[in-house]
Write a structure and sequence with these properties.
The protein is α/β, with parallel strands linked by helices. About 40% of the residues lie in helices and about 10% in strands. It has a six-stranded mixed β-sheet with strand order 1-2-5-3-4-6.
């Protein structure tokens, strides 16, 4: 009993008191919230009042102050400076003007000016190229005609030669006359008179930069029925024979753009398809494209900016020009070294 009584003395005694309160106030937090609300409403109505009494000029100045893209930024070292610079007490302030007015953005105009500049440059280069090319063609035409006129041995052959300038370029045609062919009948073998004319033609075109298109034509006289060798093969073989003659006269083979056999599809004398003059060889010095002329250094580089250079190299320059004559007319494509059968 003594031991149990000792444990009872050591146990703590816990007293729980319950304090009941009345319905007093809940603190002052609501006052802070209400004060914030009243302040915000006051600022809002003050803003409405300022907008109502402010002039249009004042509103424009305020708007430009918060516009980082506005062009009227400061060029002066006074004031705050920078994009957010405002008005100052003196005219020499942080803004470029005392009163800023809205200015339309110039980005699209600048881009348009750049496009117009490139457009004008490309057109100018094209005009320069065509003017120089036509002059060179005319000089070659006169030189070839003069050689035939002044050389007694060639004077009789002048009637076999036709030279003109076409949209494709300088066209030199060597044609047959009645009883005086340039090739052996039904063959691609050149006769001596043809070889003499080819030598004169080669001497004129060697200094030129243009590629040559060599085309063979025949009259409408057909081969016998069932023949495997026709005017198509004959015209192509004669054109290829002319190509070999040009190369033999030191015309670089890289300058031969294409060789074609046209058979009797393009008559010189349309009213008489069997006329001997329809049998001919056409050598056309093809017009250069702007890109080809630029590649060989035909233009002053100081006239060409980077955008124009990129347009020329990519071929986009054609979009800035009307229909230009930098590709042959007709149904063929320029394919260097190829033999073309329409």
């Amino acid at each position: 009993m003594a031991k149990g009584g000792k444990q009872d003395e050591l146990q703590p005694i816990i007293v729980k008191k319950v304090i009941k309160k009345g319905g007093g106030h809940h603190g002052g937090a609501w006052k802070v919230a209400y004060a914030d609300f009243v302040t915000a409403m006051m600022a809002f109505f003050l803003l409405l009042w300022l907008l109502n009494v402010s002039t249009d000029d004042a509103l424009e100045v305020i708007s430009s102050y918060f516009d980082p893209s506005h062009p009227k930024v400061s060029t002066s070292t006074s004031g705050a400076g920078g994009v957010m610079g405002g008005l100052t007490m003196t005219p020499d302030g942080s803004m470029a003007e005392n009163r800023q007015r809205p200015v339309p953005q110039q980005n699209s105009g600048t881009n348009q000016m750049g496009k117009d500049s490139k457009d004008n440059t490309i057109k100018k280069l094209e005009e320069e190229l065509r003017a120089a090319e036509n002059k060179r063609f005319e000089e070659a035409k006169q030189e070839l005609e003069e050689q035939l006129r002044t050389n007694p041995e060639l004077a009789e052959l002048a009637k076999h030669l036709m030279v003109d300038i076409t949209p494709e370029g300088l066209r030199i045609q060597i044609i047959d006359q009645e009883g005086k062919p340039m090739f052996a009948s039904g063959s691609a073998e050149m006769l001596p008179n043809m070889e003499k004319l080819m030598s004169q033609v080669a001497g004129v075109i060697i200094p030129m930069h243009n590629d040559a298109s060599v085309r063979g034509h025949t009259d409408a006289v057909p081969y016998p029925p069932g023949a495997t060798y026709t005017n198509w093969e004959l015209s192509a073989d004669r054109a290829n024979s002319a190509r070999r003659a040009l190369i033999g006269e030191n015309v670089p083979k890289e300058r031969i753009g294409n060789v074609m056999g046209k058979a009797d599809t393009e008559h010189l004398i349309e009213d008489n398809p069997r006329d001997p003059q329809n049998r001919r060889i056409s050598i056309i010095m093809l017009r250069e494209s702007l890109a080809e002329a630029y590649e060989r250094g035909a233009f002053d580089e100081s006239e060409i900016d980077q955008e124009t250079e990129d347009a020329i190299e990519s071929g986009d320059y054609r979009n800035y020009l009307p229909q230009i004559n930098d590709s042959p007319t007709g149904s063929f494509q320029k394919t260097p070294g190829s033999v073309y059968f329409p």
